[in-house]
Amino acid sequence: MNHYQPSLPDVQFILGQVLHAPERIAALRPYREVDAALIDQILDEASKFIAEQIAPLNRVGDEVGAQWRDGAVTMPSGFRDAYQSFWQSGWASLSTATQDGGQGLPAVLDSVLYEWLSAANHGWTMAPGLLHGAYECIKHHASDALKTQYLSKVGTGEWLTTMCLTEPHAGSDLGLASTKAVPQADGAYLISGTKIFISGGEHDLSDNIVHLVLARLPDAPAGPKGLSLFLVPKFYPDGEKESWVRSAVYCERIEEKMGIHASPTCVMRFDETRAWLVGEAGRGLNAMFVMMNAARLHVALQGVGLLDAAWQKAEAYSHDRRQMRAPRPKDAPRGAGAGAADLIIEHPAMRRILDTQRAWIDGARVLAYETGLALDEAKHHPDAAQRDAAQRWCALITPILKAACTEQGFHGASECLQVLGGHGYVREWGIEQNVRDARIAMIYEGTNEIQAIDLLMRKVVIDGGAALSAMLATLRQHLSTSQPHEAQVLSLFDELMATTQICLDTAQRNDGQVQLSWIAGDYLRLASLALWAWAWTRIEAAQGSDTPRWQAPAQALRAWVLPEFVMRSGIIRTQLGH
Known about the structure:
- The protein is an alpha+beta fold and 578 residues long.
- Among the domains are: 8-137, Acyl-CoA dehydrogenase/oxidase, N-terminal domain (Butyryl-Coa Dehydrogenase, subunit A, domain 1); 156-282, Butyryl-CoA Dehydrogenase, subunit A, domain 2 (Beta Barrel), CATH 2.40.110; 457-578.
- 55% of the residues lie in helices and 12% in strands.
């Protein structure tokens, strides 16, 4: 029960029947040869690889963890072999361009892969989790010389990467970063400073580690606009001696954490370390946000995966454990469990937990995979209007997914633990690890509070709600007032836009920004619930959705999830004086 099994049939149903992914992918020029059969084959092989090689390492990763000694980090037994197999088999380069050593496949397949990886072994998956963002950052911002040296190594996953932003005094406020970069006569720079909370800053999984580091040039202004981005490899080539030199970058310690014990969270010291500029001086955040936006979608998928992992354990336990008699209508016959006890799954309170969490998982998959498809459509769709719509979707949905999926990943996993009772609280069943591991996703890559402010202030208020209105208008095209559940979603959209107008009016007041900051989290939750409701109308419209598998969570969504919409709307209106 401790080993996660990728949910292949459910994912195939959502991709094929709900989102019509094969047809949409085939309409994009780079993927015309990617058909349903190939997609199924890739997912089938991915599920086998993860179940056989990654999931079994989850327990040792949690119990042994990454070990630091004298500046070196040793990963748990089996981790290096699994990673070497991972990148050499091409899983790290699934969506990397073929000219950079990758397979050139659609981004949505990467989304599924990393959801499953996180569910199977969150700590291990932290290592390759930043590869895609680092690859895109180097590809679009680095010099030709840096691309020649590092792009294919990162793109294939042969060399792993880090994102070095946070400092002891500069967490979410990166403008306070003080790490220095001093230019040298040969075009390189010397980096000096300390970064904290660096995932995978030191390890033995790969032969080299490529650090992307925010630092400040001597004449740079204060604040975020003064930051530049630099590439610092653990080992770099010495051209004259044709050998490799160890950089002056050191792991001073790793943190003792609540969860993800197999991921070394490092304090990294840069001691006049040789570095090379990535992109323009003073525009480091522009280049770095390429990494962060990619990372935020992957973090959302971590929430989905960890919730699914917890749900699987709770569901299996509920079909095995017997406890007391379950309540039934007076005239209902008792089943095979009649007598002293019934299976836990027969108890309505437990069924409510399991069906509700599945409603969150299924809806999240629709939205996350739609975002994966939109990433490719934004780049490759032949219709400019469709490219714009896909880009608008990604911009608006990313903070919503990051916050909503990770919040539900933690709280939902805790709910699933409740199904196991006292057995869930002990290590034997493995579900308590899911709860511990899931908690970090609400914090890193921009806290969920920052995601809420980003959505409301930088994505909605900034353009008077135009982008949100345009996105909802597109989603309305799938809905009909003649269908009761679809009509309900239309009413949620109307209320979301009415609430948005209240927020826009509030923004004009003297204290508007303060007032909106109070309710930003409620606004993000309001938008999330409307989108989950829309996602479920898509599921129910799909062929094959008329089975208990899909009907039970659909009923739970409307009974136990969507009523929160009225509460959140009421909070916003009350706090903003409406």
